[in-house]
Write a structure and sequence with these properties.
Blueprint: H1 3-26, H2 53-71, H3 73-81, H4 85-93
Length: 95
């Protein structure tokens, strides 16, 4: 066995041992995750920047909801576009 093969075998053995130990470690109860408040720069007006990680998460969630509504716009416009679709296809074919 070469030195490289021995090193790879040792890494594989360590990975297997860690994989066997993982189910025992995951059986322990998980404590809730608490996030600290973010520090604010001195002199910034109140409300100018988010004060906590939870507030940032709420703003990101609201933005994702708006993006999802924008992604649904073509589906909502399909009934309006359907009657004109043959004309637009014809106009596209004339180019």
């Amino acid at each position: 066995m070469t030195k490289t093969q021995r090193i790879l075998a040792a890494i594989a053995l360590a990975g297997a041992a860690a994989g066997l130990a993982a189910p025992a470690a995951s059986a322990a109860p998980i404590s809730p995750l608490t996030l600290p408040d973010l520090p604010s720069a001195p002199g910034t007006p109140a409300g100018a920047q988010p004060a906590s990680v939870q507030e940032i998460g709420g703003q990101v969630g609201a933005g994702l909801d708006q993006l999802n509504q924008l992604m649904e716009l073509p589906n909502q416009l399909a009934p309006v576009i359907a009657p004109v679709q043959p004309l637009t296809d014809l106009a596209g074919g004339l180019q």
